[in-house]
Amino acid sequence: MSNPIQFDQKQERILSVDFFRGLTMFLLIGESTEIYSHIESIQGSSIMQFLGTQFSHHEWNGLHFWDLIQPFFMFIVGVAIPFAVTNRQKKGDSDQKILLHALRRSALLLFFGWALYCMEPGRIVFRLQNVLAQLSVTYLVAFLIMKKSFSFQLIFTLIVLLITDLAYRFFPVEGFNHPWVPYENLGAWANNKIEGVDKASIWASINAFPTIAHTVWGVLFGQLLKSDRAVKNKIQIMIIAGLSGLIIGYSLDFLNITPIIKKIATSSFVFASGGWAILALAFCYWLIDVKKIISGTRFFIIVGMNSIFIYLFFSLGGAEILRKFFTPFATTIFSWSGEIMVAILVSLCSWAAQWYLCYWLFKNKLYIKI
Fold it and tell me: In the predicted model, what is the mean pLDDT of the chain?
């Protein structure tokens, strides 16, 4: 395999950002192949059971690894915004042109986020819980306040989290005034109104508002990485901020003030998941951009270069088509290994095929963006 990615030590691009985005998308591709649910179904292995559990969403109050993937994605989008804006400015784009691009991108994210899940038998619904629809809001808000001071952006996110938390606690509609109970809270009421049914999804569409913090915090740390601060100082700031997010989030949950619930994006969840995202970025930055340990990173960077495309690909049924294609071959050759192993092999083939699609696009310099 040729090596189309050149790691120039003098380049301005921060490879850890590309790696973080690519790794997150690679894990999302894995979910589309159903491999995590297959692993969880393996009997007699506590390790496989643990891994399968961690790669599924927590049922309600708690936090699994998989609950961090959407916050990671929304956070790393924010990290990339300052770099993207600087690149456009270097190409001669005016502020107005950059703003129009951001507005167009936000509108397209909202459209795709709606269109992917809008069809139900006999009707069209407005279901806005998926990551693209949520990102359309968080991305635009983060972009619009990006030029404000650090203090303004941070305080803005804290106010949004406070308002959301208070709204859940004091929402005055009978039957929806139990803030931390499934289907009996503000998020459930909003879903019912938006989707036009009596009991809509447990995932709240209004999660787009508290998770604005993830993308805005991403912008702040993107600006930190672009700054002239010493590398040691950058890492120290990220570690302190990340640990602070964890302490606040888990303390709110432990003290029974606000439980960690991903499905309605409680403030404790946003703090805890944001803390993990910041610490993950700090580790990637230290490992890749400081220690220059870049072996193997290109595998994930390739996926990140066409992240929106591959998300749309598997969301529109591409992963399912690949599974159907590989199933008869795997069944014929490996039927002796058992049904679960065949299913895992099919998933692995689908996963590999989707990675290769990203590689083929990258190799041919085709970057499908919105």
Answer: 91
Q: Is 17 domain-assigned?
A: no
Tokens of 96: 């107005």
| Spatial separation of the C-alpha atoms in residues 13 and 359, rounded to whole Å | 20
Upper half-sphere CA count for residue 244 (Cβ side, 13 Å):
6
Domain ranges, residue 366: 27-56+294-370
Residue 192 placed within a domain: no
Task: Looking at 171-296, list the stretches that DSSP marks H as alpha helix, in order from N- to C-terminal side.
Answer: 186-195, 212-226, 231-254, 267-284
In a domain, 340, yes or no: yes
Model pTM? 0.92
Measure the CA–CA gap between 262 and 264, rounded to whole angstroms: 5
By 3-state DSSP, what share of the chain in percent is helix, strand and coil, each rounded to 5? Answer: 70, 0, 30
Give me the amino acid identity at 197. V
Per-residue pLDDT, 42: 83
Domains held by the chain: number? 1
Q: How far apart are CA 280 and CA 30, in angstroms?
A: 20
**Is residue 34 domain-resident?**
yes
pLDDT band at residue 1 under the 50/70/90 scheme = very low
- Identity of the amino acid at 262: K
The radius of gyration of the chain's CA atoms, rounded to the nearest angstrom, is 21
CA distances from 238 to 49, 138, 243, 277 (A): 33, 21, 8, 10
